[in-house]
Amino acid sequence: MTTPSTWRFVITGAACPQLPLRLLGLFAQRELIPRDVAIRCADDTLAITVIQDALDAHHAGIIAAKMRALVMVRDVREERWDHDCHPPTPCPTLPNGAFQPAG
């Protein structure tokens, strides 16, 4: 088992009101409360970023796989997140360029 660390999940999907709740439900099933959640909407796309502390690589992979299984999800990227080296700008740029990360 790997050492728990902070993980960043970057999700894009259909602009469906259920998507953020379903994604957060995957953390709730494991009794986890994300440290940070950011949601942006443009046209028909949601860009969602979730920062989760105290998660090992195995469980981060399981959560990401469950996210990918949701029909409304188009893409999921998970990565170890070193918050000391990265500014707190969690939202990705949407495909149409409507949102630019700050910083």
Strand and helix layout:
Elements: E1 5-14, H1 18-28, E2 36-42, E3 45-55, H2 57-68, E4 73-80
Antiparallel strand pairs: 1-3, 1-4, 2-3
Based on the model shown, name its key terms:
single chain, 103 residues, alpha+beta, Alpha-Beta Plaits, four-stranded antiparallel β-sheet, 4 strands, globular
Question: Could you please describe the fold and organization of this structure?
Answer:
This protein is of the alpha+beta class and 103 residues long. The chain has one domain: Alpha-Beta Plaits (2-Layer Sandwich), CATH 3.30.70. Helices cover 22% and strands 35% of the residues. The protein has two helices and four strands. The protein has helices at residues 18-28, 57-68; strands spanning 5-14, 36-42, 45-55, 73-80. A four-stranded antiparallel sheet has the order 2-3-1-4, covered by helices on one side. It is globular, with a radius of gyration of 13 Å. The relative contact order is 0.30. Mean pLDDT is 86; it is low at 99-103.
CATH domain fold name: Alpha-Beta Plaits
Strand order of the largest sheet: 2-3-1-4
- The helix/strand order is EHEEHE
Q: Which structural class do the helices and strands define?
A: alpha+beta
CATH architecture term: 2-Layer Sandwich
Number of helices: 2
Helix content: 10-25%
User: How many discrete structural domains?
Assistant: 1
**Mean pLDDT level:** 86
